[in-house]
Amino acid sequence: MHTPNIMRIMRRAASVMIAAVMLVAPCVSAVADETGVPLDAAHFPDEEFRTLLKEYDFDGDDVFSQEELYQIDTIVSFEDNIKSVQGIEYFPVLRDLNIRRNQISSIDVSHNPKLEYLIIGGNQLTSLDVSHNPALKMLNASRNQLTSIDLSQNTALKELHLSNNQLASLDLTHNTKLKEIYARNNALTELDLALLPALEYVYLSNNQLTSVGLGSNSALIDIELDGNRLTSVDVSGLTAMDYLNLNNNLLTSLDVSKNAALTWLDTEGNQLTSVEVSHNEKLLELFAKKNRLLWLSDFANPEQEHDIDLAEQLYGPVAGTTLNLTKTAPGIDVTRISNVQGGTLDGDALTATNPDGLVTYDYQFNGKADPLHAQMQFDMQPLPDDSDDPDDPDQSDTPDDPDQADKPGGDTQPSDPASAGKPSEPSKPANGSNVSGIRWQMARTDSSILMIAAIAVALLTAGTAVFAGL
């Protein structure tokens, strides 16, 4: 074999080895060597984190051996003032990382592919990457400063806690195994949960939701949607739903007739004119205060003791003085109305008679139960009729008093003594009246001329006096 050939082969082998080293180099920092990983500042920069990890150094030699690194599958810290968990990448079989209520502003768990439980709530995170954690079953990142999060790679996720962040959107379409969602106090405007068949608990209070898709999730038990901007919500497919909280939204109607398992319903602070619960045999608690209720159905189980709050109802403002109840609130039974105050009831027409326009009545439901106390506020303004038609030729702009014709201000005597001698301001014309408008402009012109003339006379008089003095 010739020497040049040997040299050529050696150079080629060296090139291959260098290339291999370059490929492996990025992973070296996340892999311990055969002697283990020293428990020092070079590998674990945060002092509080090093102090915590001493509990996991089983032989106390300040070095994590290979054997120790592969034994540690759980790390727990609670309020230990940890600012960084750099070094977490050295634990390849870590399954459970619980470091809540610390001062962590960033975290890299991309080298922990076996991670199933990540609890990092109550820190200072502005971003979180869990795209390299496909085994993740539970994520708790509540009480941080997250504005977005990508969960598309976490298809094993079953429990999600993201409350008290700044999330404006959330895509859960890939998380079909989800059972529990906690995302209270964010800025979500819409959310689609229709394709999550395993979902049981949904807590989305105090967002900005205008729509939420619930679909036919037959496993759903508890739903909290209070403190949002919902004008409607469809719960007809939620046959197992036991608890529904919709208080402080913008609902004008609600259908719970298909929710036979419902025991607890809160609709406080909406714009409902009625609540129909005659199909909900298991319903025990109903909170519907601060709505616009005009009637309430009997309960399906009237003999059962119920916890009911229907206080502070106010419907209005109602234009005019009369309200047709059956048109306004379909389903109402006017024969159940009694104790009308501030007005009269004639058939289905409720008419206000008090000057303040407030009318109240009691609406009986459930037989012996305390009645619903309904209130309506009428504005007491006359409604337009044919006599007020501006196209009617009899409706002229001519003043009723002929002596007032062409007088710009009616009575020209000033009420203020200090204004004596000053021309009065002419009254403005009615809207849409060209004749009156012209008359008003002429009056303003006449008044201006009179004022200019008065000023001129005053100046002339003053000038004469000055010359006389000379």
From TrEMBL:
Keyword Repeat belongs to the record:
yes
What protein does this entry describe?
Por secretion system C-terminal sorting domain-containing protein
Instruction: Read off the Gene3D superfamilies from this record.
Output: Ribonuclease Inhibitor
Q: Which PROSITE patterns match?
A: EF_HAND_2
Task: From the record, give the transmembrane residue ranges.
Answer: 449-468
Q: Where is this region: Disordered?
A: 379-435
Describe the location of the EF-hand domain by residue ranges: 44-79
Q: Name one GO molecular function term.
A: calcium ion binding
List the biased-composition ranges (Acidic residues).
385-403
Q: Which organism is it from?
A: Bifidobacterium pseudolongum subsp. globosum
Q: Which PANTHER family match?
A: PROTEIN NUD1, PTHR47566
SUPFAM superfamilies in alphabetical order: L domain-like
Does Transmembrane helix count among this protein's keywords?
A: yes
Query: Which keywords does the record carry?
Result: Leucine-rich repeat, Membrane, Repeat, Signal, Transmembrane, Transmembrane helix
- Secretion signal, residue range per the UniProt entry: 1-32
